[in-house]
Amino acid sequence: MRRRLMILALALMPLSSTLGGLLYLFWWLSLLGKPPSRLLPPDAAASNQAGPFAQSPQKRPYFALALLLFCLLGLLTVWVCAQPSWHLAGWLSRHLLPGLLIWGCYWALRTGRLGSAELLTGMLCGSLLLAGVGLVNYVFDWAPRIQALCFTPYGGFCLIDFHALAEDRARGFSMHPNVLGSLMAMALPLWIYRLGSARGLGKLPALAGLLTISIALLLSFSRAAWLAGALSGLIGCFWLLNASWRQGIFLATALSLPALLLGPLASVSLRLAELLSSAGSHASRILLWQGGLAMLAAHPWLGTGLLQVEPLLPLYAPPIPGGAGHLHNWYLQIAVESGLPAALLYFALLAALLGTPRDLTPLGKACWLAWSGFLVSACFDITLLDLRVAFGLCLLLALLLQQRNLMRQLTGINKYQTAS
User: Fold this and answer.
1) Parallel, antiparallel, or unpaired for β 157-163 and 145-151?
2) Which pLDDT does position 359 carry in this prediction?
3) Is the whole-model pTM more than 0.70?
4) Are 312 and 344 a contacting pair, CB within 8 Å?
């Protein structure tokens, strides 16, 4: 029952963050009375034989010190920003809650209360459902609007809210096309892993899922997501697939992509051609980046405060056609909001958690590739501001940490057995 509830929560999260979040909370509460069940027996001697990398990065002294300094800098920003309450709200939503989610999921994986296979199944189901919604929305101009259990005193908030626009780009419920593309790019390495790990006829559903995800990614028309998906997918094929499957996928892509670009999906070529036009969206982003650099020069040490870039942007950048709620560069946004010292600490902490893919299982490498693709796309967009993207990245990071710990346990036990 707990397993089904968790998979259902993860499957619904990309469609409705409210329903998925509530189910995830119920699943988490149901774990409180469940005893731990470790995948590997604890063995202190084996851990000691695992070498200097046996400790997880979050347990090393420098990691704790950097985390403490980052928190202190966040508190100092409260005293200099224009809207302290906004900064505190942003710090809770962007740092504290995701940190608790990562720690909680990692703890559940480490103690056996949550299995990595269950977590992967839920994430794959969620990505496939979202891809189906995006494809139906694009192909059939589907624009549903289903609302129920609405609460008027809270600004018309609805517990059940499924609505989408019928435009020229695929999108999910209450979702920008760039967010759909980002979620599809994150799911791509996971589906490649599923294809590589499946056996026999089990490869057919994995191949169908990979194809569906790829088409939905293409129809999102998000160039940042295309870049992320292309890089993570290409590396994932080398890391996670054998030579025959890798050659088959490369050949099918080489044969089908030109036909798609010149035929049914000629608008993909037009979308890429916009990069050469002075009237394209990239021109607005250059203005945003220039404004962001000016803001950073004016607030280099403690930043402007979280959630305060949008109201301050008109003071540093010319009017942007259609308006802008962020700087379309995640790294610049963090530096502007938190200041350079806090931004450097933040990225150092993230790099310590991600580590390198050398000491990872194949599933861990898929999670690492999903994160790497996001970090590439973050140079041009900030889809992390969407709760569904943030939730998915937190789960991927927790799964990555668990897979690294599992690999180190196996390595330590093998060294201990060899020495004895």
Assistant:
1) antiparallel
2) 86
3) yes
4) no
